[in-house]
Amino acid sequence: MTTTSPAAQKSGGLRTGVQRFGTFLSGMIMPNIPALIAWGIITAFFIPVGWTPNAQLETLVGPIIHYLLPIIIAYTGGTIVYKTRGGVVAAIAVMGAIAGSDYLIAQVNATLPADNQLGQIHMFIGAMIMAPLAAYSMKWLDSLWDGKIKAGFEMLVNMFSAGIWSFVLVVIGFYPVAWLVNGLMNVLSTAVNWLIETNLLPLTSILIEPAKVFFLNNAINHGVLTPLGTQQAAESGKSILFLLEANPGPGLGLLLAFTIFGIGAARASAPGAAVIQFVGGIHEVYFPFALMKPVLIVALIAGGMTGVTTNMLLGTGLIAPAAPGSIIAVLGQTFRTDYLGVILSVILSAAVTFLISMLILRASRKKDLAKEDAFAAAVAQTEANKGKSSDALSGLAAKAAAGAGSGVATDRRISNVVFACDAGMGSSAMGASVLRNKFKKAGVEGITVTNQAIANLDGTADLVITQQQLTDRAKAQSPNSIHVSVDNFMNAPQYEEVVEMVREQRKETS
Fold first, then answer.
1. pTM to 2 decimal places
2. Residue 171: its pLDDT value, please?
3. CA–CA distance from 334 to each of 43, 300, 307 (Å)?
4. N or C: which end of the chain has fewer CB within 10 A?
5. Would the pLDDT of 389 be above 70?
6. What Rg do the C-alpha atoms of the chain give, in angstroms?
7. How confident is the model at residue 11 (pLDDT cuts 50, 70, 90)?
């Protein structure tokens, strides 16, 4: 059994930086997706083109998207950085950006004719800027007088320092941040409108599909597509942008191709992964399949472009983000007249990806059969894609890539195992469930197996299990833990080695 020794390790590189940035954005947006869904339902029913138009209840639409959603996003981001104190300061600060944006638009509209007035710009991006700015600056200010306040004056200093700094941040939000965000949103909106008008929007799949496979999609999805899509949905009731990344069709097509034309462990795990990806919406389960043969990313791009083209030609879209990217969530957020078009886009994107993947898999079948271990090959391919040595592919997966049969067991007693992924929900939760069942069947007791986001690792875990592309970040977050890399949370051979190692530890100490 081979493990990665607990050792501090720096994690660098542009890719890791983008992953961290995307994870922070995801951490602000994902917990608030229920609020976005609720707003989408209100919009779907009560706006003039909704299912049941209601002029009174329609008045909920504007305040929720313009005030509530940016404020709770800012509060969530602030709490990530500096708990409740950071959240409160961030929520106050984003109000400056909201008011500043409204003031700027009012000034512009005063010079425009009534039929050419600008609409409100919703401060999603403003919240994503103000939240870390407010929380980190508040945390830094508190550190200046930490331990220097006389007993009995702590509450007075804490309350007034936060209040005064919130006042400063509101002013900062009102002027530079509001100006910056308004300009940025105008540029991005113009670019998206240009892509749509010139029929070039499908080209975004060339960026989005590879980004998904390499865990870089959060920065694009939550940093750009969700704010722009929400802006469009507020104006027209729906947006095609919500379907650029969430479409489950390409992933389904890839997994169906592996189900029929794959070999070995990949073929055996593909059917279950297809159900999880398509119905459960956990797209991460198909990433290892693409990484085993990176040319398959071409099939994903073609499928994605097909889906975007279909939606663009038919004018279909969603009323709010589909999260997770399940077919159920997609249909639940589909605009009331767009079901046929959205379903067709999913089917066609899956079909195109399936056909191209089939050709690729069949063409390389003999070569694949000659390989001893498809998962070891996937590790090697991942290593080549990352442009790093095998040190970056830590844990048991690195041992599998080396083709070794046995290794060195760790002398650290394992009692707390954590599965970590980007958001700390879907795929890591499934992996934790699989390992818990394996411990139970093996009769191993006294082991805690949980799941959480990489950003929330606090160093207390004895053993951390991550997918290969995320191991570097997990090491940096919890350097003293033992780290294990796997290809697929649902069907990793390393689980048996972990169970055996723990069982042997229990025997030695009994």
1. 0.71
2. 96
3. 12, 23, 14
4. C
5. no
6. 25
7. very low
Distance CA 326, CA 317 (A): 15
- Is 11 catalytic? The answer is no
Residue tagged active-site, from 421, 423, 449, 484:
421
Question: Which spans in 110-153 are helix H?
Answer: 124-144
Helices 154-172 and 69-109: angle between axes, nearest 10 degrees: 40
- C-alpha to C-alpha distance for 126 and 105, rounded to whole angstroms: 15
CA 500, distance to chain mean position in Å, is: 33
* Calpha distance 93→102 (Å, rounded): 15
**CB neighbours of 147 closer than 8 A, spacing ≥ 6?**
none
User: Which residues are CB-neighbours of 481 under 8 A, at least 6 positions away?
Assistant: 6, 418, 457, 459, 461, 462, 463, 464, 474
For residues 279-314, one letter each, b for 16 or more C-beta atoms within 10 angstroms of the residue's C-beta and e for the rest, the string is ebbbbbbbbbbbbbbbebbbbbbbbbbbbbbbbbee
Question: What's at 134, amino acid-wise?
Answer: A
Find the farthest-apart pair of alpha carbons in the chain and give their distance in angstroms, rounded.
83
Residue 449 has φ and ψ, to the nearest 5°, of: -120, 115
